[in-house]
Amino acid sequence: MPPWVPNAISFIRIGLVPVWLVLAIRARADAMAGLAIDRTVLLVVLVSLGLSDVIDGTIARHFKLTSNLGATLDAVADKLAQVVSVTFLVFFSSPGFTPLPLWLWLTLVLRDGALAVGWVLVYRKHRVVVVEHKWHGKASSLVLFAVIVMATAALPELAVLVGSALSVLLIIPGSVAYVREGLRQLAQGPTVT
Fold it and tell me: Residue 136: pLDDT above 80?
């Protein structure tokens, strides 16, 4: 397996984010015009984003192609997909989609803002940041992905709210753990594994 394959999949994932956004904007325009929305392509793009996340990580681990660059690209692809889709589904969901709550968006923005600031601070001091995926990050991403799919599929608002609350319950302790690790790297330097 060529060593560039997992990173190429991450770049494809990053490229799928604007595709989903354009499709969502078109679907909303159709709903505003009173037309029925065909969600098939929107959901296929979302499922492709989710499956490609699993595939790139599986390939990287199985063929021992893991790298700090790959972990960073994976995190960027995850965060970009999450922030773009949640922002759309909070502020532009109606009509056509089930709205996501503002507090979910605020949680994501605060988390990702803290992670970005931490990454920059550690990089400026040590010229390297070790990005390591932990179970809580993957669990919160999985639940958040399910919430985004539910809102895109226009499932009932109660189901979306329950999923959003569960997502926040996973995001908060995971964010605390990532901030602790960032502070440790800032104070002592990254431990390259």
Answer: no
